[in-house]
């Protein structure tokens, strides 16, 4: 009897913590772009990803070297199917072959959980490309169903925030009218297949195009007065949350208020051209440092409080071969040699500097940091992020203990 009570109580406590803990563990995602000719070998990238506390990685392709390097690491992967392959995927056999080669081959050792079909397709304004998007998503999903993988791998696409016609105030968020026709079947697909809606959101772009009107503190998550959405009465103290809630409003206006919204990209460049106001090392450090803290605090947006953030920071590395303005090549948290591009400004990381990290091998690739070296810069970042996440866990520990105590009283 005593034992059965004990087990009842213990299992109750376990199931309560099972409900609470997955929501509490800090879950940072990072985009691993590779438009560069000087990046470290994927094997050496594993410790870098771990050092920032990231548990999720998003690729723009399905690079076999990366997927192999991350086997049995527990890191979750979003793999990408590039825009250039969409037309081919109209053929169901080619779609199935793609899934076999690029996804099934790596499961279950590499934890691929999602495939993004194309990136920012709808805002290219290329009707041919747009027409191929939905059939490609359907065919890849059907291939997953055929291979028995659809329960573990979802299918989605990543949109630019420019699919919105109105993004301010957040309660007035709506999609570009000319896109509603092609977005609606995609939303229906998400609802049916349980896949998330992905949006790339950059407060940097808004600030860059309007630096005189927009408060820098508001876009960098620094203390500021914030704004009140007069229709919803919600108070916003940062632009990213306002952008995310504008997406929630746009989805709700089409009847899809329940779709989970994930932020597939957000970030801030540490360098830019002379006319790119705000692209500085200091601002990048504030934006990304504060962002990581917010991900760990997991307080949700005003419209979706207590909802777990799924945010993928852009990006892991500076990418020297990206076209466009200088900012495009300077979004990385890390330089190509594996040293941090800047301190993330989280307590404990300020000591991190370029020369405490790696030694360069003769091949030019950084040696993997030794896991037990206390002077290792990567580990200092890791420790600081973990410390932050632990303090959020600390905040939730009291209610958890209270629940456990109540369960205990109930059982005895
Ligand atoms: C696409 O079309 C929209 C609406 O017509 C326009 O506002 C936008 O600038 C265009 N984007 C590009 C990249 O051409
Ligand atoms: C590298 O380390 C030395 C001490 O070991 C320090 O004086 C120097 O400032 C560091 N350089 C950088 C770029 O942080």
UniProtKB/TrEMBL annotation:
Signal peptide: none annotated. It is an enzyme of class 3 (hydrolase). It catalyses: Hydrolysis of (1->3)-beta-D-glucosidic linkages in (1->3)-beta-D-glucans. Keywords: Glycosidase, Hydrolase, Membrane, Signal, Transmembrane, Transmembrane helix. The keyword Hydrolase applies. Its EC number is 3.2.1.39. It comes from the Eukaryota. One of its GO terms (biological process) is carbohydrate metabolic process. The chain crosses the membrane at residues 7-30. One of its GO terms (molecular function) is glucan endo-1,3-beta-D-glucosidase activity. Pfam families: Glyco_hydro_17. Residues 353-365 have a biased composition (Low complexity). Residues 353-373 are annotated as: Disordered. Belongs to the glycosyl hydrolase 17 family. This is glucan endo-1,3-beta-D-glucosidase.
């Amino acid at each position: 009897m005593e034992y059965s009570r004990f087990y009842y109580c213990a299992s109750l406590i376990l199931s309560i913590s099972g409900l609470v803990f997955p929501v509490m563990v800090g879950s940072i995602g990072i985009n691993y772009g590779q438009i560069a000719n000087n990046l470290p070998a994927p094997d050496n990238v594993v410790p870098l990803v771990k050092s920032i506390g990231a548990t999720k990685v998003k690729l723009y392709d399905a690079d076999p070297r990366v997927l192999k390097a991350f086997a049995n690491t527990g890191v979750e992967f979003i793999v990408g199917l590039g825009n250039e392959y969409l037309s081919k995927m109209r053929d169901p056999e080619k779609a199935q072959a793609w899934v076999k080669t690029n996804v099934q081959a790596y499961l279950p050792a590499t934890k691929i959980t999602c495939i993004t079909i194309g990136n920012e397709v709808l805002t290219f304004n290329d009707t041919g490309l747009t027409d191929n998007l939905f059939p490609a998503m359907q065919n890849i999903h059907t291939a997953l169903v055929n291979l028995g993988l659809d329960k573990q791998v979802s299918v989605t696409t990543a949109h630019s925030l420019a699919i919105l016609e109105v993004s301010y105030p957040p309660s007035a968020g709506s999609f570009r009218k000319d896109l509603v026709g092609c977005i609606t079947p995609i939303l229906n697909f998400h609802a049916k297949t349980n896949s998330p809606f992905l949006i790339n959101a950059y407060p940097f772009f808004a600030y860059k195009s309007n630096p005189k009107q927009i408060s820098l503190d508001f876009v960098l998550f620094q203390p500021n007065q914030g704004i009140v959405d007069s229709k919803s009465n919600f108070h916003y103290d940062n632009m990213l949350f306002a952008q995310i809630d504008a997406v929630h409003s746009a989805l709700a206006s089409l009847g899809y208020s329940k779709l989970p919204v994930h932020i597939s990209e957000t970030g801030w460049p540490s360098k830019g051209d002379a006319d790119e106001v705000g692209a500085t090392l200091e601002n990048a450090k504030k934006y990304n440092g504060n962002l990581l803290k917010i991900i760990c605090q997991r307080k949700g947006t005003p419209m979706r409080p207590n909802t777990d953030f799924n945010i993928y920071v852009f990006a892991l590395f500076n990418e020297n071969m990206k076209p466009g303005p200088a900012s495009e090549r300077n979004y990385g948290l890390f330089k190509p040699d594996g040293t941090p591009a800047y301190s993330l400004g989280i307590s404990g990381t300020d000591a991190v500097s370029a020369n405490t990290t790696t030694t360069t091998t003769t091949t030019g690739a950084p040696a993997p940091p030794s896991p037990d070296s206390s002077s290792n810069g990567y580990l200092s970042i890791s420790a600081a992020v973990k410390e932050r996440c632990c303090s959020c866990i600390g905040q939730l520990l009291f209610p958890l203990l209270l629940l456990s105590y109540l369960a205990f009283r109930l059982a005895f």
